[in-house]
Amino acid sequence: MDHFKYRDRELYAEDVPVSKIAAAAGTPAYVYSKATFLDHYTKIAKAFAAVPNVICYSVKANSSLAILAVLNKAGAGFDIVSGGELFRVQKIGAPMNKVVFAGVGKSDEEIAAALKANILMFNVESEAELENIERVAATLKREGDLKEPARVAIRVNPDVDPKTHAYITTGKKDTKFGIDLGRAADLIAAAKKLPNVQIAGIHAHIGSQITEVTPYRESLGKVVDFIRSARTKEAPLQYLNSGGGFGIHYQDQAAPPAEKYAEVIVPMVKNSGCTLLLEPGRFISGNSGILLTKVLYTKRGVDKNFLIVDAGMNDLVRPSLYGSFHEIWPAKSATQPPTRGGSTPDAASVAKVDVVGPICESGDFLAKDRALPKNLGRGDVLAVFSAGAYGFVMAGNYNSRPLLPEVVVDGAKFHVVNKRQSYEELVARETVPEALL
Length: 437
Ligand code: LLP
Fold this sequence. Notes:
The structure is a single chain. The protein is 28% helix and 24% strand. The chain folds into two domains: 4-31 and 286-426, Lyase, Ornithine Decarboxylase, Chain A, domain 1 (Beta Barrel); 103-278, Alpha-Beta Barrel (TIM Barrel). It starts with a strand and ends in an 11-residue tail after the last helix. The protein has twelve helices and 21 strands. α2 runs parallel beside α3, α2 (34-47) packs across α9 (258-272) and α5 packs across α6 (127-142). It is globular, with a radius of gyration of 23 Å. The protein is an alpha/beta fold and 437 residues long. The strands form three sheets. Strands 4, 14, 15, 16, 17, 18, 19, 20 and 21 form a nine-stranded mixed beta sheet that branches. Ligand LLP binds at residues 58, 60-61, 79, 102, 168, 205, 208-209, 243-246, 279-283, 318, 322, 389-390.
C-alpha cells in the first residue's frame, strides 16, 4: 500500500497534511511520497531476489531528479529511452553499468552519448538500428572515444497480447516494437560479424499496466526457448530482460503483488541461466504520487453538473488520452474514498459530476460522472490518486499553462523539488526577430 492516508478528516502524505502542501506550493501540484517509492522498489527487489538481477527503474514513468536520486541510493539501475533521460541519470551520478537504453528511434547523437557513457546495454529494436550502432561505435573508436564494444540486447516481439489498453500494448506483432523471433536469430548471426557490437541478451517488453501474469508466462516461455536455442560462444545471451509492465491498483484492487509476477518469471529465468533485467516504472511510481488540485467553480449544465478545477489535461493527460480512471476525493473528508477502503458513500451525500479543467477542449477532464461529496465548492482541495507515474512527465504547456511543481514528502518534512514554471520561463527560449516585423 501507499503512504497517502486519511487521519482526523484530513488526507496525509506520510506525516504531512496535504492541505499544508497545497497552501505552501499552490495548486495544481504533484506530491510524491518517498517512503512509497522505496516500499515499492523494495517489494520488487525482494520478490526477485532468488535470481541474479538488476532492477532498472523505468525513468519515463517519473523522471524527477530527486526521485531518481532516492532510487539510485536504494540500489536501482535505470531504463532510459532518450538522450534527455541519459542526461538525468548522469546528473544524479547513477552508475552507468546499470543503465539500459530502449526505444525504436535512437538518434546518432543519443547512441554516441550512451556509448561514451559506457552504459550496460542498448535494447536494439531493428536491423537498421543495429547497423547504425556499429557505425557510430566504429566512428567513436577511430576518435579514441569508445571504451568498450557496444553491448546490445535484441528486443524481440513475442506476439503476445498483454491484455491492456491498445495504446500501451507493445508485444503484439502489429506494433512498431521489437523484432519477431524468427528474424531475431538472423540478427544475432549478423551481429556476430560486427566488430564493435556484442550481443549480451534478449529483451521483451510486452506492454504496460498488465494485471495478469499469463502474458508474462507466454512471452517468456517463447523467449527462454529462443535463448536456449540461439546461445553460442560469440553470443552468450547472458541477460534476459523482461521489461516493465507490472500493473497497479487504480479503480479496483486488481493488480497482483510483486511475488505473483515473480512466481512466474523467476523459474523461467532460472531455466534460462540468465541474469534478469527488469524495467518497472508504474509499479514503483504510480501509487507513490497524487495530484493536488483546487475547485475553482461549480457549474450546472443541462444534463450534467461540473466541478471546474485548476488542473487540466496539460497537467494530467491520462484520463483524456486513455480514458483512465483516477480516484478523486477531497483532501478534507470524514470518509475514505470508495476505492481506497472507504465504504460506498450513502447516495444522499454524493452527486455525480464531471471533474473538468480550464483547457478549451471538451476532452479536458479528470473524471466523468463521478460520485463526489455534494458539499464541494470553491477553494476545496482535491487529491487525484495514482498520479505518480506518467503524470508530470506527460505534462505540457498547452494554453500557455506553466508546468506545475513537484513536491517530495519525507516523513514529517516536504521539499519542493521542482518549482512551478514562471511566465517568464514559459517564453524564455523564444525570440521575436526584428526582421520578421
Ligand atoms: N520498458 C520499456 C521498454 C517501456 O517502453 C516501458 C513503458 C517500461 C519499461 C515501463 O513500463 P511500466 O512498468 O511503467 O508499465 N503513458 C502510458 C504508459 C506508457 C508506457 C510506455 N513504456 C500510461 O500513462 O499508461
